[in-house]
Amino acid sequence: MSSQRWLFKYIGLFIIFLVGIFFSISSYYFVEAVEYENLQLEFQKRSDSRINSFKREMVRNFEVLTGLRAFFSASPNVSRDMFLAYTSSVLKGRSSIQALDWIPKIKKDERPRYEKLAKEEGVTNFVFTEREQGVMIPVKNRDVYFPVYYTAPLYDNEMALGFDLASNPRRKKTLLQSIQKNEMIGTNPIILIQGREKQKGFMVFVPVFRTVDNSEKQQQELLGFVAGVFDVEKIFRAALKHADGSTRGLWFSIFDRTNKKRKFLYQEVFDYADTWNTYKQIIFVAQRKWQIVIYATNEFKNIHLKSNSFVVMLISLCFTFIIFAYLKVVLDKHQKNEEIVKLRTQELSIREKQYQQLEQMAKKMEELARTDPLTKLSNRRHFLEQMEIERVRSIRSNKPLSIILIDVDHFKSFNDLHGHSCGDFVLKSLTGTMKSCIRKQDLIARWGGEEFIILLPETNIDGCRIVAEKIKDKIASQTYLYQDKKLSITITAGATTHKNEENIDVCIKKADDALYKGKERGRNEVVTN
Q1: Which of 70, 91, 240, 255 is 20 to 30 A distant from 204 in Cα terms?
Q2: Which neighbouring-strand residues pair with 213?
Q3: For residue range 14-61, what is the model confidence (pLDDT) as tens digits?
Q4: At which of 304, 330, 351 does a domain end?
Q5: Domain shared by 515 and 402, yes or no
Q6: Domain limits at 519?
Q7: CA distance linking residue 96 with residue 83, whole number of Å
Q8: What is the reported pTM?
Q9: Where are the strands (E) in 214-367, listed by range?
Q10: Are residues 249 and 120 in the same domain?
């Protein structure tokens, strides 16, 4: 009856504790959900701010084309000097505009006059050109030409002078669309010759018409096009300066999705695995469909996410533990006498277990003191102890005792080329190969670094050399595979036989000298001493 009474009391206490834990966790997730919702709204707000700033910056750049169009509409006979004077003023402070062009509509019979006029204006060797197999050649005869007649700035853009845009099917299609809609039309992404390697940009064409009075009605006559070449990255960077808040933790990409194909315009490189959230928006730029993708990384989340949920949960848990502790103390006071005997019994049991654990630890420590932790072979200390035992036995029984000292050739190169884990792999792999070449009564140990030593009881120098050659040949003939890399390994060995009057150090020194001679001979050798 007493045990059942205490059981019910502790069950009640445990239920109170579980209710408190449940309330604490629930409050944590509720507050966290609110915080993540606010974080999402902050991310969307900052993304919209940057996209709107980008739109405004695009409008500022396109206003230059609109002004240039009005300039040619008002003055059809614009000279090259007038064009350069006008564009030099509007290009100041607009590094995102790589070029402004005037592309007149020129009929076949007008071509000689325009080419002559350009040369008179100082453009040496000016001719209408087109591209054929990557080479600029004089343009072929056609009814209408749309050459780049004026361009500014001249630096980095002189090669474009005279190029007939109608010779390029894609450009010609864009020009015709611009004429039909009488609106500015953008092109597919292009690689800018003015910018860094593979820097992306785009061109925009704006048709220029003039009104011609006919006998009965007025008609629009096409004079040509004004065009602009724009650097997307510079436009975007200028837009970010005017956006609200910091861009820390935000990364941006812009793609052209006009023809359902994703063409790269601008992309910042970062660790995409660190992305916390993305925001995408479609905008229309000069009749082109662009997609702006903004990536928020965990850095953005860590900066803007408030940690109130953890504080609320911590307070709730503290309150729960205080109540639980208080009730438990009350129950423990009533049960104290009953627990004394149990506690003493448990102490005896614990001491017995601790004694067993100490015995196990002592055995493990003894084994660790004798074993190399990497290869699981005997270490230097254990080897010397066993060699002394075998030395005494060899003298008493008048039977030979030999040793082999082995060094891995060019071991440092494995660490340098593939890392220290590769060196560990080599040592462990050689351990298995060498074990397969010796007898059960033989002892192999790791001497230090990349050196191994083998103890061969009842083995003379000839037998010792045979074992060493067997190990050397087997290692050299094998291919060791490490992380899909094939490793070729060789060893050099020094072999010697113990003499009765020698101590251990002298015997090992003889093997070491033999090993050194093998290294001098070019490695992958067995030398006896």
Answers
A1: 240
A2: 218
A3: 787 788 788 778 877 888 788 888 889 988 998 999 999 999 999 999
A4: 304
A5: yes
A6: 380-528
A7: 19
A8: 0.56
A9: 218-231, 250-256, 263-267, 275-285, 288-297
A10: yes
